């Protein structure tokens, strides 16, 4: 299965942004998110191995821990005019670790916290197949409600 990193980077960025909405102006949060997305995508070029998802996982790890936070996060904040200290100390959780790997995004809050899976391509594929099936069932039900006679099979007279 081929992974182009768009989904994984987007999931990770949106997770970080979820801590900032309703705390900072939406436009600035969106700009920060776009910049972080670009920075992560550029960083991961040449370090994305869909056939070996765990290869390079430490390189693709994003750590948020006050002044010890990943430089890519600090760069995105500076490039979009966000106050780095306020962002890291007030709005983002301390000791947040994100692993952005081909086919999976996971996080952990705290050094001893449990790892939570935010995204899995396998789950996403199953969810989209299930969602498609649900959509088809809903469409059939709507058609039956609109045209109850049209779907009845014709039975030949005996």
UniProtKB/TrEMBL annotation:
Q: Which GO terms describe its molecular function?
A: transcription corepressor activity
Positions of the Anti-proliferative protein domain: 5-112
* Keyword terms, alphabetized: Phosphoprotein
Region ranges (Disordered): 123-158
GO CC annotations?
Answer: cytoplasm; nucleus
Signal sequence: where?
none
Q: Which Pfam families match?
A: BTG
InterPro entries in UniProt: Anti_prolifrtn, BTG-like_sf, Tob1/2
Is this entry keyworded Phosphoprotein?
A: yes
Q: Where is the composition biased (Low complexity)?
A: 123-146
Keyword Phosphoprotein listed: yes
Question: Per its record, how is this protein called by name?
Answer: Anti_prolifrtn domain-containing protein
Give the lineage: Eukaryota, Metazoa, Spiralia, Lophotrochozoa, Platyhelminthes
